[in-house]
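Comment thread on ticket #2218

A.B. wrote:
> Attaching the input chain for the structure job we discussed in standup.
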Amino acid sequence: MYAAGGCNSKGDKIIPAYNNYKFDLKVIEKLPIYDSLASAILEKAPLFQKNMNKNDSYQAFRYIPASNQTGVFRKLPEEAGGDIGRYFAKLGKDFIYGFDIFKDSTIKIYVRSKTIETTKVEITENLSYYPVGSNIKHREYPVKDSILNIRWQYWTRFDAPGLF
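C.D. wrote:
> Ran it. Output below, let me know if you need it in another format.
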């Protein structure tokens, strides 16, 4: 896929990064660990759902230990932490920095985020888990995706500050 015309200079920076991006095979190789993590998160879904802000249209429990944002949990509820913490440790900081679990039990895993210093293009890699399995829809530019199986989608968002 190639971005449509009308791009400004920031868009011009994103297009090469978008076109040249290759999904990390090491992330894909770790899919069995991500599967186990997703199972551990879903097992605790009722606990997480109790902590969701019902007035927030996003309706997710967001856990990112290194975050300073309000509404983001930096610690898991004590009853939830055991297996989830072990899978975080097994994946390591280069392969996970947080997750969201949504009201419908879909899960978004935050894999990593980096900035290309020369162009300042921000690249954020994620995995989405769909517990029911479904026809996962491809995402549109500035997101590039790969559907790994009926439950997993690996996707990357490209951004330049001030563009989108």
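A.B. wrote:
> Thanks. Noting for the ticket: The radius of gyration is 17 Å.
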